[in-house]
Amino acid sequence: MTQRLMVHGGNPLEGEVRVSGAKNLVPKAMVAALLGQGVSHLTNIPDIRDIHVVSGLLRLHGVTVHQDDSGLILDASHVRNANVEDIVGHAGSSRIPILFSGPLLHRLGHAFIPGLGGCDIGGRPVDFHFEVLSQFGATIENHPQGTYLVAPQRLRGTKIELPYPSVGATEQVLLTAVLAEGVTELRNAAAEPEIVDLICVLQKMGAIITMGADRTILITGVDELNGYNHRALPDRLEAASWACAALATKGDIYVKGAEQWPMMAFLDAFRKVGGAFEVDDEGIRFWHPGGELKAIVLETDVHPGFQTDWQQPLLVVLTQAAGLSIVHETVYESRLGFTGELNQMGAHIQPYNECLTGSPCRFERTNHTHSAVVSGPSKLIGGELHVPDLRGGFAYLIAALAAEGTSTLHGIDLIDRGYENFMEKLRDLGADAEMITD
Ligand code: EPU
Known about the structure:
Elements: E1 3-8, E2 14-18, H1 26-33, E3 39-43, H2 49-60, E4 64-68, E5 71-75, H3 84-88, H4 101-108, E6 110-114, H5 127-135, E7 139-143, E8 146-150, E9 159-161, H6 167-177, E10 183-187, H7 193-205, E11 208-211, E12 217-220, E13 229-231, H8 236-248, E14 252-256, H9 264-273, E15 276-279, E16 283-287, E17 293-294, E18 297-299, H10 308-318, E19 321-328, H11 339-344, E20 348-352, E21 371-376, E22 384-386, H12 390-402, E23 406-410, H13 413-416, H14 422-428, E24 432-437
Parallel strand pairs: 2-14, 3-13, 9-10, 17-19, 18-19, 22-23
Antiparallel strand pairs: 1-23, 1-24, 3-5, 4-5, 6-8, 7-8, 10-12, 11-12, 14-16, 15-16, 19-21, 20-21
The structure holds uridine-diphosphate-2(N-acetylglucosaminyl) butyric acid.
């Protein structure tokens, strides 16, 4: 049974949506519960696949996971070994399982991690993760079905400098260092708002973590952690996606629950393009104020720079802006592949291998198409779209909503992975879209 989404474009999206809890925090906070001896309560849970994957893996390891209207209740008092075959059943489902490494090494002395999944937006290696785990004292063996890790003795704090401020590797260090013996110094750490929220969770559990200047984090290991009570921060990536949908369709959307501080770089770019927004205590209203949208130069970067996950939805907006916009993707080497199908809809996007904004990135002089020149405004016409990845999929949805005529989106389950109830939210905003099951 496959599903496709028919979108009849050309109508402005108008109304209110409530932003969900952050996809890139909640599963990690669930993994953190594994470190605590008691019960953890996590609220503001989005109904997306990663939550089910992590719940399943936690249960296999003896954690009681209960969900009710208020959120998740996780009891990690009785962590136990899991059957490797059962763990392998989760192979390819998500990127989160690798973060079970440190917590399981602390609780059981060993861990088995299945093969990872996640969006196809680059090679997405995990070399930093295994390098830091071995620095803590773990031994690592790769098997065809996954990776087996052992802590021959209590893991020890260490000095780490990441080659690149990876979000996942920073989380790996945090989730491992909090119960390691002694102090861990992490340099060149990522500092995304979701990481800060994870640090808040760990601090509530009894961890000692100091975020210093220059992306340095100091963690003093403790002997035991407790459960926590935490409300996940709102999903700034989802909020920005709705903001782009408002601007591209000449609409007006109030994103209830959106917060300004984690979105400052996005809000700057949104304003430069010509979008209007207003922040109040409950959320942020985004709208097209009329007149021409303006071309901009956009470079993605680690926080506090412009987040890579905002790039694809905003690029669709740039197809509607007058003049030449330049986009330089510096976080993932393959996050501009989605532009080909936008060109088939009438956009004018020329991809390049060079670092077009002038600041060389890791992908300089490689064969990776990681820059683009977008020439606009272009009239978009409905087309057949094959969702390539989560954010690329939402970008196609925006293009389809802004286009004249009907578009068909295939591979919709990828959008479901990160946008809770997006069909219901689209309907609330007046979109003319229907899901067809074949
Ligand atoms: N990298 C390595 N080696 C590693 C780890 C990362 O070379 O061991 C490289 C990656 O290949 C990439 C860069 O470092 O080029 C950044 O990767 P990072 O580790 O920061 O990404 P991640 O932890 O795998 C999370 C989010 C992504 C988000 C990035 C960057 C989750 C589940 N995923 O991925 O979210 O783009 O951080 O902020 O938290 C999305 O939501 O659509 C999404 C892809």
